[in-house]
UniProtKB/TrEMBL annotation:
The active site is at 33, 81 (proton acceptor). It comes from Cellulomonas oligotrophica. This is Isoprenyl transferase. One of its GO terms (molecular function) is ditrans,polycis-polyprenyl diphosphate synthase [(2E,6E)-farnesyl diphosphate specific] activity. Belongs to the UPP synthase family. Z-FPP synthase subfamily. Its cofactor is Mg(2+). Keywords: Magnesium, Metal-binding, Transferase. It is an enzyme of class 2 (transferase). Substrate binds at residues 34-38, 50, 78-80, 84, 202. Its EC number is 2.5.1.-. Mg(2+) binds at residues 33, 221. Homodimer.
Amino acid sequence: MRLPHPLYGLYERRLAASLPPEQLPRHIGVILDGNRRWARSSGVSSAHGHRRGADKIAELLEWSEDVGVEVVTLWMLSTDNLERDKVELGHLLTVIEDVVGELAQAQRWRIQPVGALEMLPERTRDALRAAQAATVDVQGLHVNAAVGYGGRHEIADAVRAFLRHHAGTGSSLDDLAEIFDVEHIAEHLYTKGQPDPELVIRTSGEQRLGGFLMWQSAQSEFYFCEAYWPDFRRVDFLRALRSYAQRERRLGR
């Protein structure tokens, strides 16, 4: 429901004030979905839809800072997306390169690319690594830019990293099978050392994760928003946080 404009700001402020700080997530994952459908419904090109979606990212990061979130993971491009029409994919990669450069230039957030970077074009890899290098000393919100990301790929990469780590120790496969544990995967994930996301938000009305943070989201709360990503508002974000704060988190117990 969209409130009349004179009441919207008041409602938003009251909603923000009602959030209990001690019950808000440290890490939020966001699936930025609906750019193409927004473009079709608006009668504009997919490229314009992706650009509008990219313009929304800085707003989300500001909203996250305001409520004390420490880590935001943005799913910007999946491994499946790499199979898209080459022209559209080229436009999308250009938008991603531009937006990570803009975020880095702000010197406000620490950017970390997460994903199978070897699957990306060299120009995109270079843009992501440059953003990471430019913000490595920034003391602020940690932003994981999930580009060329797939949950199955991440787990496979974690297992490969574990095997490579022990390759020089003389351990046999039988030895490794005996000691292998879930913690060994956690130690080699793209997000190692970070808290797992307590809340995962997906826009556009789709009610599935599609492989996003498969390992890390085992105990996450999920919030599905009807708005397409370019239309996602601060009030939608605050409603997601309110929903999270009202849930009883059992964490498997």
